[in-house]
Amino acid sequence: MSTDQFGIAARPAESIRSVLAEAQRSLQVVGIEEAALEAVWLLEHVLHVSPLMQRVQAERPVSAVDYANVQELVARRANREPLQYLLGTQEFCGREFRVSSAVLIPRPESALLVQETIRRCRQNPVAMVVDVGTGSGCLAVSVASALPDGRVLAIDISADALAVAQANMEQHGLGARIECVQGDLLTPLAQRGWASQVDVIVSNPPYIADLDLVTLQPEVRCFEPRLALAGGPDGMDVHRRLLQQAPVYLKSKGVLLMEVGLGQAASVCREAEKSGWFRTYDVLRDEGGIDRVVCFEKQEERSKPLIVN
Ligand code: GLN
User: Fold this and answer.
1) CATH number for the domain harbouring residue 37
2) CATH number at residue 135
3) Are residues 209 and 175 in the same domain?
4) In terms of Cα–Cα distance, which of 6, 29, 31, 172 is closest to 96?
5) 54, 127: one domain
6) Is the pTM value of this prediction over 0.85?
């Protein structure tokens, strides 16, 4: 074995195989379920070597710098930081979206919001759509790319989130077509004089009840933005505020589509109907069988609110 000037044995050069095995072990011992797969993806991210080539070139040496970078990412993942924040991307509706800890990681079930928005706009290609709490911009981008003549406004209260959304819009060639505005829910529409102008308001609001936040898996609880998760005592604070604000800006027969959490759909529908402004025209189930998206249509005339004891 060769030794350096101090007579210390040089560490044998790391190979893809050894780095991969070590990464996999480190993830496995902390209970990461897909340790083997995640190790391959982290290596791919650092080395720019595809999973297939990692097998073909398993004996290829890994430089000290790359080795240190892999180790750093593995340590962060072992600390439960979401893989998506480490890799910087998440796929949604067939597109890659950049993500950082400033935004919620897009979830597959939110595609229901996109599908329903597009379905409602089929007869009206120039529809005006507002995405409230755009986060990564995944809903706004997916909708705008399906509606080339539509107008899409994306709102978020967080400037850091809007920077990520803007980058995603540009990356998908929609920077000029989607307007990004910072503000609290629909308040930016007031200055624009958009009363009764909007066809679809779509939103995936925060909907975790305050007391449930501690029960979330560490990836979510410790790393995703609280602003994107916490929905007040019963998780429906933001839904209520949107139900109040939306009638001002929606056209008659315009729609409000909101994602809801487990067990919330019935209460949100009740509140919507009670307001007298909305008719529930659908509740969409996700693949897990959970009522996930509530669909409200603004009534032509406000019906007398039902008095429910
Ligand atoms: N609109 C984004 C999404 O659906 C962000 C939602 C949020 O931050 N609550 O992923």
Assistant:
1) 1.10.8.10
2) 3.40.50.150
3) yes
4) 172
5) no
6) yes
User: What is the residue range of 283's domain?
Assistant: 90-298
Same domain, 122 and 257: yes
Top mutation candidate among 93, 98, 107, 110 for ligand 1, by most atoms within 8 Å of CB: 110
Ligand 1 pocket, Cβ-based, cut-off 6 angstroms: 104, 106, 110, 133-136, 138-139, 204-206, 228
Separation of alpha carbons 100 and 129, rounded Å? 25
Distance between Cα 138 and ligand 1 center (Å): 8
Q: Quote the ligand 1 centre to 17 CA distance (angstroms).
A: 38
Q: How many Å apart are CA 239 and CA 200, to the nearest integer?
A: 15
What gap in Å lies between CA 96 and CA 151, rounded to an integer?
22
Q: Supply the residue whose CA is at minimum distance from atom 1 of ligand 1.
A: 134
Report the number of distinct structural domains present in the chain.
2
Q: Are residues 181 and 37 in the same domain?
A: no
Q: Rounded to an integer, what distance in angstroms lies between the CA atom of residue 148 and that of residue 242?
A: 27
Residue 4 domain-assigned? no
Domain end position, chosen among 23, 52, 79: 79
Mutate to test the pocket of ligand 1, among 136, 141, 260, 293 (most ligand atoms within 8 A of CB): 136
309 residues of the chain, pLDDT tens digit each = 455 566 565 566 899 999 999 999 999 999 999 999 999 999 999 999 999 999 999 999 999 999 999 999 999 999 999 999 999 999 999 999 999 999 999 999 999 999 999 999 999 989 999 999 999 999 999 999 999 999 999 999 999 999 999 999 999 999 999 999 999 999 999 989 999 999 999 999 999 999 999 999 999 999 999 999 999 999 999 999 999 999 999 999 999 999 999 999 999 999 999 999 999 999 999 999 999 999 999 998 787 665 544
Ligand 1 atom closest to the CA of 113, numbered from 1: 4
Residue 74 near residue 42 (C-beta atoms within 8 A): yes
Nearest CA to ligand 1 atom 8: 228
For residue 156, the CA-to-ligand 1 centroid distance in Å is 9
163 and 282 share one domain: yes
221 within a domain of the structure (yes/no): yes
Alpha carbon distance 299, 296 (integer Å): 9
